[in-house]
Structures are given as C-alpha cells and as structure tokens.
Amino acid sequence: MNTSSQSHPRLSIIIRSKNSAETLAEVLKALAAQTVQDFELIVADSGSQDQTLEWLAAYPHQLLKIQAQDYFPGKVLNQAASMARGEILVFLNSDVVMLDQDTLAELLAPFANPEVKASFARQVARPEADAWVRRDYLKAFPSQGSAPDWMRYSLPLAAMRRSAWVHMPFYTWAWGSEDTEWGQGAQAKGWQVVYTPQARVMHSHNYTLRQLAGRRFIEGEADAWMQQAAYPLYKLPLRILADGLRDLNAAFKTGSLTELALALPRRAVFHWAHLQGWKHGWQRLKAGSQESSKGQQFVLERHPAVLR
C-alpha cells in the first residue's frame, strides 16, 4: 500500500474499526493490491483491545481514537471526514473485502462526470452467509443495472466528493442508517448517486435474532426521521407474511429444516423490532427530543460488533 505523500492526495479512505483483527488483515491486503494507490488512510478506532492497531501499524495512516461509549456513526464519520485532505472520500468498513484489484477504480469511475456526487459498491454475501442473507443481498445489490429504488446509498464501500460532504454532512439525530439518510438527502437535492455493480466487495452478517432486533430497531428509528410520519401499522402483517412466505418457499426448495423453523420467527423479529424503533423515533420527533442514547444502547447491548 503506497499511500500518497502529496499534500493533497486525490482520495481519503476512511475505515472505522473496533476489535477488527479477525477481518482487517484481509481488508488491508485487498486495499494494498488495488490499482489505485494515490490515497491517504484515516482510521477511526473505538477502543480496540485485540490486534487491530498492530495490523494497522504496518500501513501509514492517521488514527482517530474514539471511546467506545462515545461511538456514534454519523458523528464519527464527520470527524474523520473533517481530517481528510482528498477531494474524494472513500468509506470502507473494517470487515469489507474488495474482491478485485480494480474494485476501487470501478467505484471511482463515475466521478469522471462532474455531475456525479457519490457512488457505492455491490456487496456480495460471504460464502458462509445464511440463505436468507444471500437472497436479501442479491435483491439489494444486483449484478448489473441499477440498485432498487429503496437502496439509495450504502457505506460498507462507498465514495463521495468531499465538497458534497461539506454541503451535507452525515446526520446525527439517530444512531443508525446514516448512509440511507444521506442518500435520501442527495436524492432530494437532485444529486447523482451511482451504483457501481462492477465494484465488488464481500460483506455480510449472520445475525442472531437478538442481534437482528438491535439492528432493526435503530433502522426503524432512523426511518421515522426520514419519513417524518407515524409507522403504517396496516403494513406490518403484510410485510411479515410476504417475507416469511418467500423464506419458507426457499427453505422448502433447499430442504433446510433450520430455515423452515426460522423463516416466520425471523421475519417477525425483523419487522417488529423495526416497528418499535420507528415508534420510538416518532415519539422523539413529536417531542422535539435530541436524546439519541436509547437507540445506541439498544443496539450495542445486542450487537456490539456494529461498532466497526
């Protein structure tokens, strides 16, 4: 990895980490193999106690140290972006592996058009991903064409012009979905945000039901902010049934007893936790509350790995 020694590198790559040693070596190896090497590396670490910082020591980087209890995605991303000197910001999660040597080049290709403000990569589920995770990823990140309308932006690997971030930093009202909220804001401004399916990365999580509940709660809270409306309760059973039947159908085809047993409970948790988060967010909105710690506590109690 030959990070730029220029005073103004073209790219600033931002990685968030906490106890990421299990995946970070592979992530950094793939980054070092990219055809694009004119970048500076900025790492925001939230109190790693494993070998994360040792792995990073081999690569020139700027380190932003965050106390674990102070980790708040939008806030940390804004802090790291404020340190950046590159004209383009690239966001790379510490468990996201670039699959090709030109992944970064493909992600950056749309910026040849000065009207393009941001881009995001295609995420491919890990080989050990659960079947339902693989199906959801294929739906969200198609191998060609455009991403679905609801997939506006996704930060595991994404880029944006620094000038766009200066004009519209990440929001800090809620703990999660900072990328989705930024994408919605970009869409409202008429900005071009490009999905780049040729830029492939490996990334996915096999959530337990408890972890899934934590993740979906903060997504629901964020959705209340983005929709500025109460949750449409009449859609809840329809969503559980539609997703559950899809998972059941897939489980019957594969003969997986585990998938058969979990299909409906998993989708019930998936949508019920989202509803609870939305209700909490809607209550905050009506009260004009800036207190965001409940969502943070809810997800970290169930899924501390989201710190990375």
TrEMBL record:
Keywords: Transferase. InterPro entries: Glyco_trans_2-like (IPR001173), Glycosyltransf_2 (IPR050834), Nucleotide-diphossugar_trans (IPR029044). Residues 12-137 form the Glycosyltransferase 2-like domain. Coiled coil: none annotated. It holds the Pfam family Glycos_transf_2. GO terms for molecular function: transferase activity. This is Glycosyltransferase.
